Amino acid sequence: MLFDFFYIVSELKKTPRRGWKEKIGVNHPESVADHSFSAAVMAMIFSDLKKFDTEKMLKMALLHDLSESITGDFTPEEISKNDKKEIENQTMKEILSKLPIEISIKYEKIWNEFQDGTSKESILMHEIDRLEMAIQSLKYNAEGYPKDKLALFFESAKKDIKSKEILEILDEISYK
């Protein structure tokens, strides 16, 4: 049972973030696992700074893209937000069913909280997800990928972020 869960999770290491490849032409884009690791570190730091529930934030960060180990990384153009949410929720139930029931229930609660944006931690996690994307766009720009195309990712992230601390970081690093 646990082996099945761990095997599924390990798929994230080879699941590419498709937007970078399809929209920018990055030949070997970061994996979903790469993104999730960076987001988890950011979640830990911001949660501690804000005195939020850091254990919950870390779990949320590690769970937030876990469904992509089965579904792959959808781009916004290929699926509606509602369809994506429905597919991801069903996929997460399948993945979490590989865990002991008491753990599965806890993780599903955190997952649903993230999906629904019903807590300060989930709101922050959504913003961190966007911040991580903005930072990655700058990294690809430093590798020579076109600034004009990458700026679209950056601006997309910026419009979804409301947190003062995260906006200050974006202002500090924005494309000028």
Question: From the alpha-carbon coordinates, what is the Rg to the nearest angstrom?
Answer: 16 Å
Task: Output mean pLDDT.
Answer: 95
Strand content: under 5%
Overall form? globular
| CATH-level-4 superfamily name | Hypothetical protein af1432
The major pleated sheet works out as:
none
Helix content: over 70%
The CATH first-level class comes to Mainly Alpha
- What is the end-to-end distance? 50 Å
Query: What number of domains?
Result: 1
Number of strands: 0
Order of helices and strands: HHHHHHHHHH
Number of helices: 10
Tell me the CATH architecture.
Orthogonal Bundle
Structural class: mainly alpha
Structure keywords:
mainly alpha, globular, single chain, 176 residues
Describe what you observe in this structure.
- The chain is an all-alpha fold.
- The protein has one domain: Orthogonal Bundle (Hypothetical protein af1432).
- The chain contains 10 helices and no strands.
Helix-strand layout with pairing:
Elements: H1 2-10, H2 18-24, H3 32-50, H4 54-63, H5 68-71, H6 81-96, H7 101-116, H8 120-142, H9 147-160, H10 164-173
